[in-house]
Design a protein that fits this description.
One of its GO terms (cellular component) is membrane. By secondary structure, the chain is an alpha/beta fold. It has helices at 3-10, 21-28, 59-66, 72-78, 112-117, 154-163, 176-186, 197-205, 221-226, 237-242, 253-288, 294-317; strands at residues 16-18, 32-36, 47-53, 89-94, 97-102, 105-110, 130-136, 139-147, 167-171, 190-192, 211-214, 229-233, 245-247. The chain has three domains: 13-41 and 151-261, 3-Layer(aba) Sandwich (Rossmann fold), CATH 3.40.50; 44-148, Calcium-transporting ATPase, cytoplasmic domain N (3-Layer(aba) Sandwich), CATH 3.40.1110.10; 263-316. Strand 9, helix 7 and strand 10 form a beta-alpha-beta unit.
């Protein structure tokens, strides 16, 4: 009653890859979805909206520092920088920034919150945009203001998931204003901002129930492991290794389709079990009382299997 429906469900959509059939069943039982913002709800390309220079600096230093960690914001800034990279020393990675030494200078790049924690005097306030600052010897040299755009179908997909009774919650390392604006546009009431990877993992591990995590950034690795089931887009190297379910195109509608298929398969599995129980509950006592000859009884058992197979095949047409 169960394997046939699961096999059809796992291979139903070639753009949704389940690493194990078990993950399809788990996905059907999910009540809450934790979802990353940057690159998941928003487009993969971040646009540089404004660059403010406070002090002149060697662009090679910033380029070399940004190159040490993959991030959508870093990619946008790197397009404006030229020259060869230099050899940095003592590179340190933080949740919201990077630190390195070059000769006798200390270099910092990251969010305003990170720079402030490192003792840099910030001359700007947070906004709904992503803001990345570069500092040298605790002096702010430049501020990059970057704009994110929601994926074209993000609002429709979120609405469809909510209509299925699923609760969504955004987990993001970006600033409060940026995450709040994104949540407002998508109609998501719960969100968290300024999170470290450990913060994300802690929030998910504290949830009592079956939950899913959707993300593909480097900061999502710990959170993906804590969720009951995890989903990510295949183009991310992290998704290939850390996620239980891979979405092979950068199309957010695949997320809704994955949940839809899982719920339909689970319904059919339950139907098959009920059909088998009812069928056997009626025919076995009748056969035991001698009202059916052995040949008809054996054919009836095959008919029971055929019934659940035919019911499962409905999944191919739905």
């Amino acid at each position: 009653a169960t394997p046939i429906a699961l096999v059809i469900g796992v291979f139903k959509n070639p753009l949704i890859v389940f690493k194990e059939a078990l993950f399809l069943e788990t996905l059907a039982k999910v009540k809450k979805i934790f979802i990353d913002k940057t690159g998941t709800l928003t487009q993969k390309e971040v646009l540089l909206k404004e660059k403010i220079i406070y002090e002149e600096f060697d662009g090679r230093l910033l380029k070399s520092l940004l190159k040490t960690k993959e991030h959508l914001a870093h990619n946008a800034i790197l397009k404006t920088l030229h020259g060869d990279e230099v050899n940095l020393e003592k590179i340190e990675f933080f949740a919201h920034g990077l630190k390195a030494n070059y000769q006798n200078e200390t270099l910092l790049v990251g969010s305003l919150k990170f720079l402030n924690a490192m003792g840099v005097n910030i001359k700007a306030k947070e906004s709904a945009n992503i803001m990345v600052g570069f500092a040298k010897n605790k002096t702010l040299c430049a501020l990059f203001i970057l704009e994110e755009r929601l994926k074209a179908n993000a609002k429709e997909v979120i609405q469809a998931l909510q209509n299925k009774g699923l609760e969504l919650e955004i987990l993001s390392g970006d600033n409060e204003s940026s995450v709040k604006e994104c949540a407002k546009k998508l109609g998501i009431s719960k969100y968290h901002a300024n999170l470290t990877p450990e913060d994300k993992a802690q929030i998910i591990s504290s949830y009592k129930g079956v939950c899913a995590m959707v993300g593909d950034g480097n900061n999502d690795a710990l959170a993906l492991k804590q969720a009951s089931v995890s989903l990510g887009f295949e183009k991310s190297a992290l998704s290939k290794s850390a996620c239980d379910i891979l979405l092979l195109e950068e199309d957010l509608s695949l997320l809704e389709k994955a949940f839809h298929n899982a719920q339909k398969v689970y319904q059919v599995v339950l139907q098959n079990i009920v059909l088998s129980l009812i069928y056997n509950a009626i025919l076995i006592p009748v056969a035991m009382l001698g009202y059916i000859n052995p040949l008809i009884a054996s054919l009836s058992m095959s008919a029971s299997s055929l019934l659940v197979v035919l019911n499962s095949l409905r999944l191919k047409r739905s």
